[in-house]
Design goal:
By secondary structure, the chain is of the alpha/beta class. The protein has one domain: Alpha-Beta Barrel (TIM Barrel), CATH 3.20.20. About 30% of the residues lie in helices and about 15% in strands. It is built from nine helices and ten strands. Strands 1, 2, 3, 4, 5, 6, 7, 8, 9 and 10 form a ten-stranded mixed sheet that branches. The longest helix is centred in the middle third of the chain and has 16 residues.
Length: about 300
């Protein structure tokens, strides 16, 4: 890709010549793991698992990233387009309820072409785009009609927090515009007769220690740009300092309190959101993928 504009940073590097931008990747697919995954929301993982393909590289720099082994180091296996198509079809054949593209943002324009090929070769389960919310509108529009379910994070409202914790200036504005585009494409979440997601939008928000007021601001903002009743919210309590950098602010060196989470949850309900919540046992590193397994 010449003059890369795959994300809002607009690095404009020439990836066809091997130039590397903020995300750390070139023109080649690099996959950290590809396997059935059972730790997503119930309507995503179901009983057979989600066909999760974890892409290496990232356009964010979250200081608490649980996938830093592949987001920072860009570790994994190189895949050709045909190999990635074959992997998607293999995961479907193994019973995956969906193909879950995890942090595919740096590859978004390539993904569109790959999905077209996969669908022509028989891919029939829903395609899920699982991202950090810091997305390019142009890239999302290239995915229109190819992605069935969007699963974005909406991390921050306060720009200072976004810069400090994820090096993501103007995060709320960018994520808000992206969210509206995702909703335009897929609408409200719909489930099949077994409760498995078929199409629609699920928005994740991770409540961070000492940041509950920003969490409330995020929820209020979402309710202002989209009807809360149309947005399935996944309010996450799984923050753990196990993955935090050594120099993170003091508040990120502890887990969330029950008061903090329940206060934000109560506010979400008051705004009219419905969806998924987590209990305190979710804040364990055991629930994160082990990229040392190298499952390809």
């Amino acid at each position: 890709m010449q003059k890369c504009l795959a994300c809002p940073r607009g690095c404009s590097v020439d990836r066809e010549r091997g130039e590397i931008g903020f995300c750390g990747v070139t023109n080649e697919y690099i996959i950290g793991s590809a396997d059935l995954h059972f730790w997503e929301e119930p309507c995503i993982s179901g009983t057979h698992g989600s066909g999760a393909i974890f892409f290496s590289g990232c356009n964010l720099r979250c200081v608490f990233c649980q996938n830093r082994d592949i987001s920072r180091e860009v570790a994994g296996k190189k895949y050709s387009e045909d190999e990635l198509v074959a992997k998607m079809l293999e995961l479907e054949a193994r019973g995956a309820h969906n193909i879950n593209l995890v942090t595919a943002t740096p590859y978004s324009f390539f993904i569109a072409k790959t999905l077209e090929k996969a669908k022509k070769q028989g891919l029939s389960v829903p395609v899920l785009y699982n991202c950090g919310g810091y997305e390019s509108l142009e890239a999302l529009r290239a995915l229109d009609g190819l992605v069935d379910i969007y699963l974005p994070d909406f991390k921050y409202f306060n720009d200072d927090l976004a810069r400090t914790y994820s090096n993501a200036p103007n995060y709320a504005r960018v994520a808000g515009e992206a969210l509206c585009e995702m909703y335009r494409q897929v609408g409200k979440l719909t489930l099949d007769e077994k409760g498995i997601a078929e199409r629609g939008l699920i928005v994740r928000h991770l409540v961070l220690p000492a940041c509950r007021e920003d969490s409330k601001a995020v929820l209020k903002y979402i309710s202002e740009i989209l009807p809360a009743s149309e947005v399935t919210l996944s309010l996450m309590r799984q923050y753990t300092p196990d993955f935090a950098s050594e120099n993170v602010p003091k508040n990120l060196k502890r887990r969330l309190t029950s008061f903090e989470y329940e206060d934000v949850l109560s506010y979400a309900l008051s705004l009219g959101f419905d969806g998924f919540s987590q209990d305190k046992e979710s804040a364990k590193k055991d629930f994160t993928p082990n990229f040392d397994k190298n499952i390809f």
